[in-house]
Amino acid sequence: MNLENKPRVATVWLSGCSGCHMSFLDQDERLINIAAKVQFVYSPIMDVKVFPENVDVTLVEGAVANEEQLELLKQVRERTKILISLGDCAVTGNVTGLRNTVQNSVESTLKKAFIETADVNGQIPNEVPKILKQTVPLHEIVKVDYYIPGCPPSADTINYVLTELLAGRTPNMENRSKYG
Amino acid sequence: MKPIDLVKLAERDLDLRRSYKYRINVCCSSGCLPFGAEDVLKAFEQAIKEYGVEKDCKVARTGCVGTCSVGPAVVVEPGDYLYQSVTPENAREIVKEHIIKGTPIKSMLYRNESFFKKQRRLILRNAGKIDPYNIEDYIAMGGYSALMKCLTSMTPKAVIDEVMASGLRGRGGAGFLTGQKWTFVARASGNPKYIIANLDEGDPGVFANRTLAEADPHAIIEGMLIAAYAIGAEKGYIYIRAEYPLAITTLKKALDQANSLNLVGENILETSFNFSIDLRLGAGAFVAGEETAILASIEGQRATPRPRPPYPATSGLWGKPTLIQNVETLANIPIIINNGGAWFAGIGTPKCSGTKCFSLTGKINSPGLIEVPMGTTLREVVYEIGNGIPNNRKFKAVLVGGPSGGCLPEEQIDLPIDYESLTKVGAIMGSGGIVVIDDQSCMVDTAKFFTDFCVDESCGKCVPCRVGLTKIKEIFERIMRGEGRMEDMNLLEELGNYIREASLCGLGQTAPNPVLTTLRYFKNEYVEHISQKKCSAGKCFQKNEEG
Amino acid sequence: MGIGVIKLKINEQEVISREGDTILKAAKEHGITIPTLCDLDGLSNFGGCRLCLVEVKGSPKLFPACTTPVSNGMEVITDSERLKKYRKMAIELILSERIHVCSVCVANNNCELQDLANKLGVDHVNFKRDWNTHDLDTTHEFLVIDRNRCILCTRCIRVCDEVEGVHVLDLKNRGKDTEVIIDLDDQWGVSKICTSCRKCAKVCPVGAIYVEGQPISQTRDKKIAEFVLTRRQS
Predict the structure, then answer these.
(1) What is the ipTM of this complex?
(2) Does C103 touch chain A (CB under 8 A)?
(3) Mind listing the domains of chain C with CATH numbers?
(4) CB nearest C103 (choices: A140, A151, A173)
(5) Nearest CA among B404, B448, B451 for reference residue B539
(6) What's the mean pLDDT in C118-129?
(7) Is a pLDDT exceeding 80 seen at residue B544?
(8) pLDDT tens, position by position, C92-111
(9) Is A8-98+134-166 in CATH node 3.40.50.700?
C-alpha cells in the first residue's frame, strides 16, 4: 500500500461534546472504504501530539472557546488544504455558544463551572487555557471551505461529503443541512 | 360664498395690497424663528408706527424665502430687497433708510445673488410673499381661482386631462404620473373616496414640505380640493408629522379660514361639491410616510406598510379608493389649472416637467430651500445656487435623495436632476434632500450614518430590511473597530442588493443606496479602512487611537 | 371574487387558476412548492418573510407570491439562481437575528425554519449571530412564549385576532426591537382576555410559542385557521 499518494485526512476536536466524532465513527463499514482511500494523520482517536503539515482535508468538531483552540485552529488552517466545519458547534456555536447569552460570560461561566457547582474547594484554575470573550464558530476566525451542520450531523451526510470531496466533486448541501 | 364673491374678494385684497407703497415681509417660519424673527416683526411694526408710515408700508408675517442660514430674513417690496440676519435694532434702521429715505441699505443685503438666479419658484410662488395666517393674502395672489375655474367651467375629466397633459409626476419620490393616479382613483369603484396629503417628511436634513406648509398652506388645500373634485372624493386628510408644530398651527388656521369662507366643507362656492379636510398627526415613525403605512396610521393601527397590490387607488383607507399625494405635488395643481397643462409641460425636461424643491444642506456656502426646474444640473445647484464649498475645501460627493439616496462623486456632478438620471447612477429623487460632502468627510462613515438611521426607522415587518440592515450596520461597526475583512465589501454589496430587491416597501428598497453608491464610487476608502485601518478624512478610528 | 379563469405559466408549466387568487395559491394547487414562513392558509396575507419572492417574465422586479394576484399570460419563475440565493440569504438573516439553537429547542425536528434551512442547503450563516437575549414568559398556566426563537412572522397575532377573535397578541417597538407582546405588554399569566385556545402555539412555525410539557408534534396544527374559516363559510 502506497501511503504517499493518498490524501492526508485529519479530524480535530475543539469545544464540542465529541458527538460529531461519534457520528463520524457511525459511518461503520463505510469507514473501511474511506480508510482505504486516505491516510489519517491526526485525530483525537489517534495518538499524535502535534498537528502535522500538508494535510489535505481536516474535519473540525466544536466551536472555538479558548485561546488554545484559537491557536490550534489557526495552525490547522495554515496546514490544511480543505477545512470542514463538522457539526453545529463548529458551524454556529450551538450549545457551547449559549454562554454568549450571559452578561460577562467569561467570569460567570468560570464561576458557574468551578465555584458554584464545585463540591469542595471551589476555585478558578490558572492552568487551563484562557477562555475567549465569546465562543465562536470556526468561520468567524478562519476561512472554512465546507460545512456539515447537525447536532450531530448524520453519518450519511458525513460520508456523502467525504465521498464527494474524495471524488473531486463539490457536495450539494440541499436537503443535507439539518441543524439540531 | 358665490364664485363672484371670490372674484370680488380677490380684487379688494389685491387693491389693498397695491395701496401700500412698500411691503416688508418678515420670514417667521421654522428656519428664522430661532433667530428671533418674532421680535424683528414686532420691531418693524413699532418702527412704522413711530415713523408714521403705516399707510404707506405694510409689515407682514410670511413664510420662508429659502435662505435659511442667514435668518431672520426680511424682504422689502417692491424690488425684492432681501435683508439678512436682521435684528430688532436693524429694523428701525431699515425703516428709516429704505422706507422713509428710499435708499436700501446695501451692507445688510443678502450677498449671494446667484442664489435666486437659477431658481424658478412655482411651488413656492407665494412663499415669503404672503401671510400664511391670512387667507385673503392668498386670495389676493389669485388663490382659489383655480378651484373656482374647475368648479364653474371644467368637468372632473377635463381637470384630470389637464393634469395628465402637464406631465406632472409625484413629488413624494417615486415619480408616478399624477394624472394617471387620478384616473385610477376616479375609475375605481367604491364610496366614499379619500384623499391624503402626505406631509410626513421625516428625512434628516429635509424641510421642503414643512416650509411649504408654513409659507403657503392654502396652495396645499386648494390642490387637495381640485384633486377631490377631479376624482370624486368627499373627505381628505392632511397627514403631518407631530414634530412640525408651526406647520400644524398654520394648516389649522388655514383650514378654519377656508371653512369659514366656505372654500372647504359643504356646497363649496355654492356648487354641489362637498369636501372636508382633517389633520392627522404622525406619531414619530419615519416609515409612516410610506403610503400604505399612512393608511394604517390614519386607521389607528401600527404604521407599517402592507404589500401592494391592492394599491391604495382601489383599496386604501378602510378599503376605499384613496388618492395619496405629497403636498408638493398638490401645490402644483392650482398653477397647472390656471396656466394649462401644456404650459407646465414646457418647464423642466420632456420626461420630467415642472420644478422641484430641494433642501440644500451640508458643506455649502448658501444652504437653504431651493426650487429649480427639472433638468438643472447638480453643478448649478452646488456651485451657482449654493455658491460652492466653504473655506475652499474640495468637493467630494453629493448625497441626493435623503437618507436612502445615493452618494454621487465629482464625475457625476454634471448630471441633470430628473427621476431617470438619478436612478441610473444609484441615487433617487426621494424627498429632495441634497447634502454636499467635502473632503473632510469620510464616505464609509457617511454610509454608516445613513444606514444607522434606516436601521432605527425600519418598521421591522420584513426580513431584508429589519435584519439585513442590522447586519450591514454590524459589518460597518466591525470595519470601524479595525476588524474588517476584505470579503466584507462583497458581503455589503450582496446584502445591499438583496435588501433593495426583496424589501416590502420603499424604505427597505432604497435604504442600501448610500452603501451601494459609496461602494461603487468610493471603494478606495473602504479598502483603506479595511486593509490599513486608516481613514484619510480623519473621521474614523479616533477612539481606537486614544484608547 | 370573480369567477374568471386565469391562464398562466409557472416554471414553464401551464397552470389554470381563478381571478383574484395569488401566485402562491395557484402554485400550491398544481403541486409547485414555493417556500414561505409567514404565510398560512386561513390567515390574512402578511408579506414579511420575503421567502416566496418569485420572478415574473418581463419585469426586473421580484414579486411576493403570497400577495401578488395571478393574471392572464403571466409567466412565473419560482426557482431561478437569484431566487435560490436570496432565499438562502433570508434564512441566514433569520437564523442570525436571534438565538436559534436547534439542538436545545422544543421544536427540533418540527420546525419550519429548520426544515427550510435544510432544504435550501443553508449549511452555514455568513453573518455574526446576535446572542442578546429576549424575554421569555412562562407565567401562563401552560402556554410559553420564548421570544429568543421568534421570527416575527405574526402568525400567532393573526390567528388570535382573525380566527379566535380576541387579539391578545400584538407587536411593540419597531425594526430590530420589534417584539410580540401579550395585551398591552403584560405577562401572559395575568391576561384577562386570553382564552387559552392554543391556536398561537398550533401555528407557530418555530419554537417560540409552545405548550409546556406537551410534545410539539402534538401541539402543532397548521391547518387550524383554514379549518375554522371553511367551517364558518359553510
Answers:
(1) 0.96
(2) yes
(3) 5-79 (3.10.20.740), 104-233 (3.30.70.20)
(4) A151
(5) B448
(6) 96
(7) no
(8) 999 999 999 999 999 999 99
(9) yes
